[in-house]
């Protein structure tokens, strides 16, 4: 990708992000209430989107020669560490460190 | 008036400061490990100001030029903002010129604070929300820039550092999981995505997955309506 293409890609991402933030305020200006269907989606979608993002992160790992095995080990470790210490940063840092160690030593 | 609002907002943002510096530095490090100058994480963190999407954009910049895909992906990954917005319609009412900034800077963490915290009655609510949003943005941009700079100074094997994004989402998933007893939404998200990944492959699964998720929720809602009536 050229620098101009990179800048254009970033601008498009900025525009998309801005739209998601501003659209509700444009569709429902002060004094107008959103339909119940939209409010319903607002309560359930956040839980589903994170699941989608987890799968998005693992999308390429699944089809590699290790079939996502180092990723699974690291995720399992994060889950245990997070259940135990309940410290978001420790879980993210610990999980990433373990993953980096695994792919730099055992899963080359 | 402003000093008082600042003093009320600051303590709520301190935990976010630690988190944003850590994640921001990781993000800057990731970008520099992929060969980008610190200007990229600095400007991207400022203008996009949506952590997950910034990580995703690193992948976009490393693959073939496809602005339409980038745009749709930005809409999908950030779709949750639509619902933050809907939740904040009331609170961001009558705040005047501060409103565009509050909306622009509405990241997950600023939303969480502004949505749940009611400042003491002697504190100006509008300025309180502005400071929460502004402080969080400063932490994030500072972290990303610092990471981008450090990445060029400190050299170590960064293979696997991209896993920080996976780790972030896994932890968010666990946190959400423990917040509620009803795990149907979480299962719907995971299940629909996995099914679509296997059917459509890693390049094209996001849009069908999002459509399937919305379809499932629409069916659930219809069923619940039938049951309750």
UniProtKB/TrEMBL annotation, chain A:
Keywords: Membrane, Transmembrane, Transmembrane helix. The chain crosses the membrane at residues 6-28, 37-56, 88-107. This is AzlD domain-containing protein. The lineage of its organism: Bacteria, Bacillati, Bacillota, Tissierellia, Sedimentibacter.
From TrEMBL, chain B:
GO terms for biological process: L-valine transmembrane transport. The chain crosses the membrane at residues 12-30, 42-62, 68-89, 127-149, 156-175, 187-220. Keywords: Cell membrane, Membrane, Transmembrane, Transmembrane helix, Transport. It holds the Pfam family AzlC. It is a multi-pass membrane protein. The keyword Transport applies. This is AzlC family ABC transporter permease. It comes from Sedimentibacter hydroxybenzoicus DSM 7310.
């Amino acid at each position: 990708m050229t620098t101009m293409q990179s800048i254009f890609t970033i601008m498009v991402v900025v525009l998309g992000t801005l739209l998601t933030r501003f659209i509700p305020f444009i569709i429902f200006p002060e004094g107008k209430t959103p339909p119940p269907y939209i409010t319903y989606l607002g309560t359930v979608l956040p839980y589903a989107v994170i699941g989608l993002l987890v799968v998005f992160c693992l999308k390429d790992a699944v089809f590699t020669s290790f079939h996502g095995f180092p990723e699974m080990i690291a995720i399992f470790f994060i889950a245990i560490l997070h259940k135990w210490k309940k410290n978001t940063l420790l879980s993210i840092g610990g999980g990433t460190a373990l993953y980096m160690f695994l792919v730099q030593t055992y899963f080359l | 008036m402003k000093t008082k609002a600042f003093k009320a907002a600051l303590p709520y943002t301190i935990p976010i400061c630690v988190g944003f510096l850590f994640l921001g530095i990781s993000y800057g490090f990731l970008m520099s490990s992929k060969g980008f100058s610190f200007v990229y994480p600095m400007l991207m963190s400022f203008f996009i100001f949506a952590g997950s999407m910034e990580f995703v954009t690193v992948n976009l910049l490393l693959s073939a030029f496809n602005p339409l895909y980038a745009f749709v992906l930005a809409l999908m990954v950030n779709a949750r903002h639509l619902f933050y917005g809907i939740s904040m319609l009331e609170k961001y009412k009558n705040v005047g010129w501060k409103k565009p900034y509050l909306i622009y800077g509405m990241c997950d963490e600023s939303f969480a604070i502004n949505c749940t915290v009611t400042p003491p009655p002697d504190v100006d609510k509008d300025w309180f929300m502005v400071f929460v949003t502004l402080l969080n943005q400063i932490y994030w941009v500072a972290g990303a820039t610092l990471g981008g700079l450090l990445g060029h100074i400190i050299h170590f094997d960064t293979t696997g550092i991209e896993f920080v994004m996976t780790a972030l989402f896994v932890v968010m998933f666990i946190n959400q999981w423990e917040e509620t007893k009803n795990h149907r939404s979480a299962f719907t998200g995971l299940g629909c995505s996995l099914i679509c990944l296997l059917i459509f492959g890693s390049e094209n699964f996001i849009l069908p997955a999002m459509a399937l998720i919305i379809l499932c929720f629409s069916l659930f809602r219809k069923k619940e309506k039938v049951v309750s009536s």
